[in-house]
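Posting for a labmate who doesn't have an account.
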Amino acid sequence: MPNINEKTLIIIKPDALQRSLFGEIISRFEKKGFKIVGMKMIKLSGKTLDEHYREYKGKPFFPRIKRFMKSAPVVAIVLEGLEAVSVVRMIIGPTSGREADAGSIRGDFSNSGHVNIIHASDSVAVAKKEISRFFKKDELFKYKKVDLDFIYSEEER
């Protein structure tokens, strides 16, 4: 049975907020039928960024990423839906905006590999870790999305 409760994390980055793209970005996920189960605006600390980007620590570009991610608040959002991780990754496009197809978030709004509008978890396991990094259990909400019957077929629900 498909899991319509799969969750993933997205982070709308400082460049998206500075460029007033938040509404446009979030509307794409809403129109696709995802349920927003958690959302908050936060200022990222160095410690959180060290943990979140641990695979890049020691790389020459890591200090630039840290400076960029601390330059303005970000919006962390937990989305829920069928195959949420893979569908969200498709909607945002590849890491480099120059390589992303038109129609994807990065393809439409980014021309950079690092200043690239949005982060999304890349696997279900990573999503669970990232969600717990940014959200406490009581900051995630369970509720019935009334349009579910018009988003998924009966066998997908």
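Reply:
Got it, the structure tokens are right above this. DSSP finds seven helices and four strands in the chain.
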